[in-house]
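Protocol step 4 of 6: structure prediction from sequence.
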Amino acid sequence: MKRIYGAVLLTAAVLVLAATASAQNLPSQFVISGETARRIHDFTTINLATAERIAETCERLASKEGVAVSIYILDNDGNHVYMHRMDGQGYLNIVTAEMKARTALMGREASKNRMNRVIQNPDTELQQIQLGFFPNSGGIPIIVNDQLIGAIGVGGSAPRVAQGWSDEICAHKAMIEVLGPQPPLVEDLRPQAGGNRGNAPVPRFDLPQSVAPRSSLPPEFVVSGRAAANIFDANQISGEAAKKIARTCRAWAAEHGGAASIYIIDTHGTFVHQERGDGQVYNNIRTAMLKAQTALQTRQPTSIRAAQLRNDPGGQPRQLMQFGFFTVSGGLPIVVDGEMIGAIGVGGGAGGGGDENCAIEGLKAAFGDRVLLPTYPQQQDKPQR
């Protein structure tokens, strides 16, 4: 028995040393490290700072091209680390960016490789989709010193490969700028003409250049101008306002000795901005998303239902099973000057300062006293007997 126990300890020690050696091959500025990495038993996952730098570099490149993109960065377990949607992006632009990132992560190769295989043999597309792949260009695995630390997917911009621009090129250039030299991109194959093509006229459906939806809110709060015209909506929270909320909440959580997972969604439930603080795990990430979605659906802070159910637990089955609400504090609708423009969900404890408090700090920083916040009645002391 002692020999077996000793062998188990030896094996565990070898695994720890192997993990440490692997971690030492990775520059610490790119991955979660130190005590935070030990707490989650992973020294090989991309950190928030690196994900943010890559995404913001791609945004800057897209802005120079006069286009907008959506960007997803996943860790090597497939969790959301950082996501941002530039103003004017529609649903398909956003969801395909995530699909590209997941394809790159699962295949351990650029999603363009899958696209090229389908171009060469269109009959394979159904099998690719059945396996969960999205065979389209724009997803790249993030590899440092031969170690996969995450994946990036970019969507939303029509390619102009001859002019040196595409979703994939945006991601690739951003990775070079942040991480250093990267393997060259795979050649784009020319798409083949599909069989049984029709000749139906395709209608246009866009607003004239002189027309754009307008909001009563300042343009820094909501999507505006041509971006609003592109989605026929001037009442969605802007990307920059969402970033300001998240950064303030992130800093507030750090001041309280911890981190937070943050989701900010628009009035249609589509992601606008997301970030996962270092050391946050699946439970923290998932609950943040569920809180944002519940706040959007109910148009109330999730703390309202959390308090109601503490007072009357009999409502739990209906709230959870029939309505699908996540009844934990930390989700808030974003209501500015009486207009709902999105919702936020915060998970992970925010360093012990409270998820709802973290969200409130972010909202106040972005909108000042124009934002609607929950207020709590003062509890009266119970009379002593």
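Step 5 (inspection) to follow. Residues 7-19 have pLDDT under 50 and may be disordered.
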